Amino acid sequence: MSPRSTLTLFPLLSIMVAAMGTLAFLAMVLVMQQGHEEHAKAGEVLVHIALDHAPPKAIPLAIECRAEGVLLHEQAGPPRFFSSERLRREVMVVKDLRERGAGQAGASLTRDQEWLFFKAVIERDPRLKDTLTLALHLIEMSNLKGSPKARPNEFYPVLLVYPDGVDAYELTSFLMELTSRLPVEAEPMSTNWTLAATSPVAPREFRSAWLGERGHP
Questions:
Q1: Residue 26 in contact with residue 186, Cβ under 8 Å?
Q2: Percentage of residues of the chain with pLDDT beyond 90
Q3: pLDDT per residue as tens digits for the range 146-163
Q4: What is the DSSP letter of 126?
């Protein structure tokens, strides 16, 4: 039987990741893993994600970062898998697009110009068909559609990083930072924790801090 309890972890972890960098985040993942070795012996722990202090329309979208790649849990349908190899190819594509954008502008693009450029080209580039970059782009555009008060839901990614998934986390973080302005939370996961994304009542809550909305031009 899976353990049942409520747990709040690292409410400001995403800020720490930005300030301290990936190496510090990796160290925290490893420390957390060592601290849960005894719990791992007890078997699987089901994890449910919620957003603290968020409006009801804010929906977390889990992205599991594992050794083989990432699993994107969208609101409907089964999780979508993107291998680490596919993510590396995506990184090469978006780097190429950024260079093309700078070439067209005749100078390095500002962060705002980069964002506008990628919003204009992601759906048109055939190399990004069926990619994580396109999926996240469509989520972001859905969040921006219409007036804030009229939107029924807004979706926000939460990166769930397993000890063997730091490479997938780095690739995903790079793609999201370069091509979107989605607010992103990162949370370390123990190896025996399993996402209960569809569970209506969380056997164990993994509550992620609400980061709020970033401004868009």
A1: no
A2: 42
A3: 887 788 888 889 999 999
A4: G
DSSP state of 198: T
Using an 8 Å Cβ cutoff, are 91 and 175 in contact? yes
The residues facing 185 across adjacent strands are 158
φ, ψ dihedrals at 159, nearest 5°: -85, 115
d(CA 58, CA 195): 19
Helix (H, G, I), strand (E, B) or coil at 197: coil
Instruction: Give the global pTM.
Output: 0.75
Q: Where are the domains of the chain?
A: 5-209
In contact, 166 and 188? CB cutoff 8 Å: no
**Rounded to an integer, what distance in angstroms lies between the CA atom of residue 72 and that of residue 76?**
11
Q: What's the CA gap between 205 and 20, in Å, rounded?
A: 26
152-189 as b/e: b if 16+ CB within 10 A: eebbbbbbbbbbebbebbbbbbebbebbbbbbbbbbbb
